[in-house]
Amino acid sequence: MLLIVYFVPYCPNAYNFATIALFLAGRFYMITMFGIKNCDTIKKARKWLEAEGIEYQFHDYKKDGLSPEMLNGWVKDLGWEALVNKRGTTWRKLPEETKDSIDEAMAITVMLENTSIIKRPLLSNGTNKTLLGFKADEYQEFFNS
Q1: How does residue 54 score in pLDDT terms, banded at 50, 70 and 90?
Q2: Which of 13, 49, 78, 115 could pair with 67 as two cysteines, CB 3.0-4.6 Å apart?
Q3: Would you say residue 9 has pLDDT above 80?
Q4: Which CATH class is domain 31-144?
Q5: 79-102 exposure pattern, b = at least 16 Cβ within 10 A, e = fewer
Q6: pTM for the whole thing?
Q7: In angstroms, rounded to a whole number, what is the distance separating the alpha carbons of residues 62 and 127?
Q8: 3-state secondary structure string, the chain?
Q9: ω into residue 12 within 30 of 0, thus cis?
Q10: Is 11 a catalytic residue?
């Protein structure tokens, strides 16, 4: 196993943290969990990762922000409907006309303005693999595939 450590310089649209990259079995892994620190589901997912001894970086939307490019990538991969948490308080507080007429463009605008409306957690390996939400069996499969 080769461990590579590098630093990502500060940029308004990038994370400001040291990234740990693991080069395993010919694959590049950079595990990042995106969400909000105080979210109960985030806490469960973080606890699971730590119990499994899996290294990861946490990207807090509230603290670290979210770039339109990053969000657009997730919308392309997962679909805007999957990303919008319609069970949360932020969704319920939106005007009825917004909820009734929401489409992809409006959803992206709403998610950039109200990051709390994005379903959490979103786990990414930094390349082409993302997982939305937390279920232990899905996390196990994510890391074993």
Answers
A1: very high
A2: 13
A3: no
A4: alpha beta
A5: ebeebbbeebebbeebeeeeeeeb
A6: 0.77
A7: 23
A8: CEEEEEECCCCCCCCCCEEEEEEECCEEECCEEEECCCCHHHHHHHHHHHHCCCCCEEEEHHHHCCCHHHHHHHHHHHCHHHHECCCCHHHHHCCHHHHHHCCHHHHHHHHHHCHHHECCCEEECCCCCEEECCCHHHHHHHHHC
A9: no
A10: no
Q: How wide is the angle at C-alpha 60 spanned by C-alphas 57 and 65, nearest 5°? A: 115
Residues in the chain, how many?
145
- The residue whose two tokens read 């395993």 is 24
Give CA–CA dist 18/6, Å, rounded: 6
pLDDT tens-digit readout, 82-111:
999 999 999 999 999 999 999 999 999 999
Task: Count CA within 13 A, CB hemisphere, residue 75.
Answer: 19
Task: Report domain extents, the chain.
Answer: 31-144
The sheet carrying 122-124 orders its strands as 57-60, 32-35, 122-124, 130-132
